[in-house]
Amino acid sequence: MTNLRKDIQFGFRMLLKSRGLAAIAIFALALGIGANTAIFSVVNTVLLRALPYPQPDQLVWFWESQPGLEQGPFSAADFLDYQAQNQSFQQVATVRRLSFNLTGQGAAERIPGMVATPNVFSLLGVHPILGRDFVPEEGAFGSPRRALLTYGFWQSHFAGDRTVVGRPLTLDNQPVQIIGVLPANFRYGGTDVQLWVNPVNVVPEVFTTFPDWERNIRNNRETHYLSIIGRLKPGIALSQAQSDVNNIVARLHQQYPVTTGHKVQLIPLRELSAGPVRQTLVVLLAVVGLVLLIACANVANLLLARAVARREEIAIRTALGAGRLRIVRQLLTESMLLSLVGGALGLALAWALVRLLVAASPQQLPRVQEITLDLRVLLFTLGVSLLTGLLFGLAPAIAATRHSLGHFLKEAGRGGAQGLAHNRLRGALVVAEVAFSLVLLVGAGLLGRSFVRMLEVNPGFRPDHMVTMWMNFTSANYAPKGRSTQFLDQLLPRVAALPGVEGVAISNDLPLEGDDTTTGLSDVEGRPPYARGQHPLVGVHAVNPGYFQAMGIPLLRGREFVASDSTNSNPVLVINQKLAESLWPGQDPLGKHCNVMGDKPSEVVGVVGNVLHNGLGESVSIESYHPFPQNPWSYIGLAVRTHGDPGAVYGAVRSLVAQIDPELPVHDMRPMEQVMAETVASRRLTLWLVGAFAALALVLASVGIYGVMSYAVTERLHEIGVRVALGAQRRDVLRLVVGHGMRLAAIGLLLGSIVAFFAARAMTTLLFGIRPSDPPTYIGIAMVLALAALAACYIPARRATAVDPMVALRYE
């Protein structure tokens, strides 16, 4: 222990004597360790930390798949069967995202919420901090409406008033009694969820036309809109539960042929949010790991140069009886001090990076508000710091002590003139830096080219000069069929008459916004009937006359909708090009009929271009468009094309809506170009992070090459002086120094290209429109890195050409 304390004290003194070297090493290590700590804090929260519920490993999410839909919701009838027939779950609950029009508390606003069966909170193990939970009776049809407030909603709308329990809320023009407040750390269904309501409104609008809701909901297995969550019984494995559910599915197939082709997959609840970002986080962790390795290689090169300068000291200590192990331990202690100080600064850097990330709150990153530097992250930082100190300190320590005492004294007498053989380790480190940098730069290049390809995709409509907003006709005022159509008949002409407005479009699913509503296609003219469970799923869009012109969607054949396409006329529809080619290849689809969400087939009156409804990176799906009066929805998106100020349009539309119905909120106002940007937000974030780390790697590699070549020039002053004295020209010296550095860089580029080729395959799902082996990316990145290496070699080489032979010969 005494020797360790002395080693630490001596190590501090030695680092203080070499302040410049210590500062550079600590700075490089702080960058590498800080980046690793920041990314690991995200990985820790999203992938490693348990969900904030009791026994979170028992929580399971249900996914249903059916032909044409890989992951989808369930029908209410299916949920009731899974709940009643399973043998593996303590409880099974259903939830559904649903927003509400909140009135009676100032201006009308749209509140995002969740509807759930009463057992959902007992299943999750969550208890209100104020009031009570739902009771089973509040799950019955026609039961009084009750609401649990999230902590944030309680604070923002009631200022934390503890007397809020028992007060009424007016949601969708219906009274809802507040029964409790949920804990501050409870988040489920997204950070935007404001309140939870009992399932009186789980039944979709389609059932409100029937007098006996319960009878119809138990018989309908074609309307899917519910999510299912369950808690496993103690001792039941996920595989057992999956087998149990598979048996239920098989029974349903026999009992209800309409469910043929449907399958159910169980996944841990944590995977629900972590799954989509798992690969991205793993890639980022690998990226920052490579950055740290490059930083370690740089510091190792610095310590190798310092070890050479300390040959005389090491020789004297050896002569005085210090063993090799004792000297290695001293040198490793100095390395550990460097890494621990760098780790401390890296921890401060990581804290700042995490705060920036949480403040940005990217929607694509789950549980972002929970990201902190907890004990596991601190232990990770400590472990990385110690491992880093060992990694970059061991090789220089061994290299500095591998020779005998006689060798040390002979080298000390020579004053330090050494050949290239003594630079092999430093050369190997430079090769590693170049190789690692190429891997990172190729990854960033592939992501960059992929991102550009995605931005170049034609979405099928014109997003420029367009603003969007949403309205929901879910209040009791719009329950009578046709009331929403009457409202729009009043609103749309007034919006179209606003100054600067060029067109107005409405749809239940605007492109790139919301969910693409789908339903089964049947009764296709000229085609045999589909087998049960094999009906293709087609997108359904209820739109207004002039929709396609306003959105900039090209009309390829036929006509658009007109005002006469009303509830009293024959049902008509417009289909996209992909659906036309799918149903009637090589034929004229105009005048043909098919059945989409109707009691009788609709006539095809037009064909329009394909639109990317689900995102720029998604494939084109088959879509159908219907006149809004023939297929009214309880919510609509309003898109206004304008050449004026978008802010003025928003205010004017709000005013027009308030004149017609002051209790109808207009929400989610934003430009369509912002909507497009949000569809690629996750790719943009990944690109920026990988690009920033790759740029850092390029700088570190360039500095490393410069440092090695600069030191090589200093070591070889005597040799260079002799060469110049014997007649070597300036170009010969340049060729000598630059050639040595570029040979190292070439080896690194070759090895890095091989590693990058295999590493890029792991990024395949992150790429769009580009192959992992894209030649222009590899060639371009190799040229950039080669030029950086050339610049790093040229500066020391130019200094070498200025060597005075007489001075260089006297140097030794």
Report the uncertain regions: 201-215, 412-422
Number of H- or I-type helical stretches: 23
Give the integer mean of the pLDDT values: 84
User: Whole-number radius of gyration?
Assistant: 34 Å
Order of adjacent strands in the largest pleated sheet = 3-4-9-6-8-7
Instruction: Please report the total strand number as a whole number.
Output: 22
- Determine the N-to-C terminus distance: 42 Å
Which structural class do the helices and strands define? alpha+beta
Level of helix content?
40-55%
Task: Give the DSSP E fraction (strand runs of 2 or more residues).
Answer: 15-25%
Shape: elongated
- What does the main sheet amount to? 6 strands, mixed, barrel
Task: Please describe what this structure looks like.
With 812 residues, the protein is of the alpha+beta class. The protein contains 23 helices and 22 strands. The protein has a six-stranded mixed β-barrel with strand order 3-4-9-6-8-7. A hairpin with a 5-residue loop joins strand 3 and strand 4 (109-116). The relative contact order is 0.11. 50% of the residues lie in helices and 16% in strands. It starts with a helix and ends with a helix.
